[in-house]
Amino acid sequence: MKKICIITATRAEYGILAPVIKELRKYESNDFIAELVVTGTHLSEAYGMTVDEIREDGNRIDHSVGIPVNSGTEEDISHNQAIALEAFTELFIEQKYDAIVLLGDRYETLAMAIAAGNTRTPVFHMGGGDTTEGAIDEWIRHSITKISYLHFTSNEESRKRVIQLGEDPKRVLNVGSTSIDNIINTADLDKGKALDSLGLADCIYALCTYHPVTLENNTEDEQIRNLLDAIRAFPKIQFITTKSNADKGGARVNKMLDESENSIDNLHVYASLGARRYLSLMRYAEFVLGNSSSGIIEAPAFQIPTVNIGDRQRGRLQVESIINCGSGKDDIINAIETAISDSHRQKCKSVISPYGDGRAAERIAKIIAETVKDGKMDLKKKFYDVGVDVQG
């Protein structure tokens, strides 16, 4: 029996992994099983207890691993990582997986990857090679790459970066982003139903998500105040806002959003919207606002504008529908005015996403199943030199 697991710790992560879980389970048999492990903010009331959304999707949950999700200080983050390292080391020893599937660049994901390395469990990594210069995600992502055996990148530029990090090109595969799969297969609510599910009448609205910029020190208060002031400047637009993740400063961002919701008439704050509702709402939004990767990857595929604030996503592959701006109040207001202009909306209509054709999950699942069933993985990786002359 060959056994792998897919691990999810956050709502956004699950949305990207869900198509892969679905496709992998098509390969389940007496000889192969794909388990789902749920952890992190999925099990936290403060973050919406999104494990319930996974159950509502009909996905079998094989293990739940509780880890702390406090995010007020650097000590909190390190403590969370330490507990995650211990908990997942125990899980991997107990379950003896033939491989684990990890996504992206979160701090707890790095702890899981280290646990896999310590237990000699192969890691299959999705989302390597991307760059986000304003967040600690940058070095976490590349660290997970070096621990991983098999790499699934979302675009060709990212594939080249993973190879540049010394990974064998034969094990670095540009499959596209499963976010595009979701757009094709998941965003099926019409505008009225999506809004009604939130208790909102038909309206003009924007989707907003803002996360702390983790390579900056204690800037979230000022940045959220500027964002809220910008929202006030557009009273005819409703801002449907999802809360921040569990990065350092995330709890503070969420507290400020909660405190402001009652005093700003056009601000509506939710712990989680779920992938289906979130993407359905995105389809009909005037624009996406904030600093989430969804504004870089998903929104352009809908050919709607993105106002991307600050440096958190700097370095990601972008298209012309994305308007980058500073985190000051006037910067955000000016960018929103550009986003809702007729000229920019017309420009968005010609945008083509560089993140794939909507068949990423199908490719990923096939390669994983074949690789695990073959059983010839060798964790003694040879560093792949790209042959670049280094000037000293």
Q: Would you mind describing this structure in some detail?
A:
- This protein has 392 residues and is of the alpha/beta class.
- It has two domains: 2-177 and 356-374, Glycogen Phosphorylase B (Rossmann fold, 3-Layer(aba) Sandwich); 189-348, 3-Layer(aba) Sandwich (Rossmann fold), CATH 3.40.50.2000.
- The chain is built from 15 helices and 13 strands.
- The strands form two sheets. The chain has a seven-stranded parallel sheet with strand order 3-2-1-4-5-6-7, sandwiched between helices.
- Helix 9 (220-232) runs parallel beside helix 10.
Query: What is the gyration radius calculated from CA atoms?
Result: 20 Å
> Going across the major beta sheet, what is the strand order?
3-2-1-4-5-6-7
Overall pLDDT score: 93
How many domains? The number is 2
CATH class of the largest domain: Alpha Beta
The percentage of residues in β strands lies in: 15-25%
**CATH superfamily descriptor of the largest domain:** Glycogen Phosphorylase B
- Give the biggest beta sheet: 7 strands, parallel
Distance between the termini: 51 Å
Which residues sit in consecutive blocks of at least 5 with pLDDT less than 50? Answer: none
The outline comes out as globular
Number of strands: 13
Helix content: 40-55%
Number of helices: 15
CATH topology of the largest domain: Rossmann fold
Structural class: alpha/beta
